[in-house]
Amino acid sequence: MADQEDICVGCGKEITADQPGCNAMNQIFHVDCFKCAKCTKTLAGSSFYNIDEKPTCENCYQESLEKCTACKRPISDKLLRACGGIYHVNCFVCFSCKKSLDGIPFTLDSENNVHCVPCFHDKFAPRCAVCSKPIIPDEGEKESLRVVAMDKSFHVDCYKCEDCGMQLSSKLDGHGCYPIDQHLLCKTCNGNRLRVASST
Ligand SMILES: [Zn+2]
Ligand SMILES: [Zn+2]
Ligand SMILES: [Zn+2]
Ligand SMILES: [Zn+2]
Ligand SMILES: [Zn+2]
Ligand SMILES: [Zn+2]
């Protein structure tokens, strides 16, 4: 009595009163034959996903999704590929300030943590020994200008005589640095300080 339409696509047998059928994805299955293609859990009556024409249970669907490198949760909406990982747009954030880096320039530190550029400089740029601010490249420049002296770094503008304010430079004649106890001094002021010290 059964016509073609009453054949279960799962097992190829008839749908009968004993073995009722259900309709899913425009096909007919025995209730018992309508199973998750991955874990074979029976799907009748529960929610399922149609993945490549194969019924898939909620669990297997979630597991088939790509996982966010940061929060380890599946990504079902927009994802972002960066630094060899896959992220929720909201999970790809600066390691320091937690700002989303979607569409924003970023850099990696040696441990592969991502930082927005300002945070990266704040954390890793050498600090000026005078003003203790990070020494970062000027806008549009790649390399930062700095003076290295006495095992310390200085902004070019901060590398000057503490007494008279003269810009110091090892490259300019008469502008060399003559430090006393880590104080930056020009040759003249160095001489003055020594004279004061020896007269007391
Ligand atoms: Zn069947
Ligand atoms: Zn499953
Ligand atoms: Zn995430
Ligand atoms: Zn940041
Ligand atoms: Zn400085
Ligand atoms: Zn001076």
Automatic annotation (TrEMBL):
Classification via PROSITE patterns: LIM_DOMAIN_1, LIM_DOMAIN_2
One Gene Ontology term, aspect cellular component: stress fiber
Molecular function in Gene Ontology: metal ion binding
UniProt-listed PANTHER family: ZYX102 PROTEIN
Annotated signal sequence range: none
Species the sequence originates in: Caenorhabditis angaria
Domain LIM zinc-binding: 6-67, 126-196
Domain of life of the source: Eukaryota
InterPro entries for this protein: Znf_LIM
Record-given protein name: LIM zinc-binding domain-containing protein
Keywords per UniProt: LIM domain, Metal-binding, Repeat, Zinc
A biological process term (GO) from this entry: cell-cell adhesion
